[in-house]
Task: structure prediction
Amino acid sequence: MTENPLDGVPELIHGRTWEDMPVGFAFRTSARTLTEADVRAFVNVIGLNEPLFYDARAGIAAGYSQMPVPGMMTFSVSDGLVIQGGSLHGTGMAFVHTDLDIKGPVYVGDTLTVLVEVTESRPTSKPGRGLVTTRNTVYNQRNEVVMVYTPVRLTKGRDAS
Result:
C-alpha cells in the first residue's frame, strides 16, 4: 500500500462537536443574493410548477410587488449557507427535526444571511454524539426577518470514534 500524502495534513475547515456548541454560542453566515435563474432552476428541479414562481404577472396579480421566492427555497438556501460556513463539516450526522416560521416574503434579488444561535446542546444516550438545537433567523438585505427555523441536528462529540 502506498503512503497517503494527505496523512497528517489538517483539513482547513473542520466542524464543531456538540460540546463545542454550548447554549449561547452564535455565528452568522455569509450572504447570498437570489436570482431569477436560481428560482427557475429550483422550481424546475422539484416540480413546483406554480405560475407564481415563473410568471412575474402572476406574482403581481397575487398582490406581491415582484416575483416571490418559494418558502421552501428560502429554507434550502438558508440552511445551505449554514452548512457552507463549515460549522458541521465532518461532525454533522443527521438533520433530525425543525420547526419553521415564514415571517415575510422573499423576492428575486433579495440577499439572505442567517444568524445561528444555539438554544440547546446535550449528549445522546449513545456515546460520541449529541443533539444541538439552534434558532436560525434569516434576514434580507434590509435586515428584515423573513424566516425563523429551529433545526435539531445529531452531531459528533469529541469522543466519537
User: Anything to note?
Assistant: The radius of gyration is 19 Å. The chain is about 20% helix and 30% strand. The domain at 18-34+68-156 is CATH 3.10.129.10 (Thiol Ester Dehydrase; Chain A). The mean pLDDT is 94.
